[in-house]
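At your convenience, could you comment on the folded chain following this short note?
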Amino acid sequence: MQKKIVAVAATVLCASAMPVMAQATGASKVELSGIVDAAVRHTTNEGADQGSLTKMVGGGMSQSRWGIKVEEDLGGGSKALVELEHRFNTDTGEKDTTAPFFQLAYVGLQGPYGRLTMGRQWNVLFDVVTSTYASFPYSPYMDAYKPELGMAMGARTSNMLKYLIATPDRKWVGAVQYSFKEGNDGAATANQASGAAQTAYMNTLMGGGTPAQAAAAASAAATALIGPQTIGTLAGGAVRTVGGYLRYSADGLSLGGGYLRTELPTGTDVDAWTLGGSYRTGPWYFNAGY
């Protein structure tokens, strides 16, 4: 089966990195930026009947978003940081139903000895791939399937502390992260699923259903509870994580690697790591990663 996709997209850059406030020192600023993107897409061999489908989608080349960045000079080479970013679907004006309103939301301090940030942020796996050997370096942060999104344990993590340090020439950059497991209670989730299953089982029997139908209803109720909770917890970051990355970049060559351990709501630990590099020369870009 061959599937063809034809899309017509429109992208508008809105107020990109536009400073709207500055103190007399000129070192403190607020920046507003964003992208609005929509497309009309025609797909062949769509669905079970392998027919065609034409529809509007809320992003042709990139997901629509707007953001606020704040830098406040504290003197002595130190500054306070704030970043908020909201993503939405242009075709409906609604936010992504699987993600929070602000997909990035953190505050931090930066000084001579590095940068410490706290809140919902990109995790270290996503950081090292997008900055070192992104599969599509011109739009690495688009919420479409890419290895750096699909295999980075949710890409963003909530309740995170991240410490980043770099050499003055930024040839070497490293970071470590730790996130608290707020709400990551596997026992509570299991108890809720058990209760939902028992309720569905009894309701089905009392409604005249057979034991087999009651068992199927109980299974569906438990799955409906555990599935979305587990997925939402991973995406929302109510998990404990610890990890870090290190990258080197000079003269067009970039090399890096990262590691992240994630404790899922059920108590399972997932160890993820990545290695790769890229090289730029003129208009050419070569990359490889594992």
Q: What stands out?
A: The chain is about 20% helix and 50% strand. The longest helix spans residues 211-236. The CA atoms of residues 279 and 286 lie 5 Å apart. The longest strand covers residues 5-22.
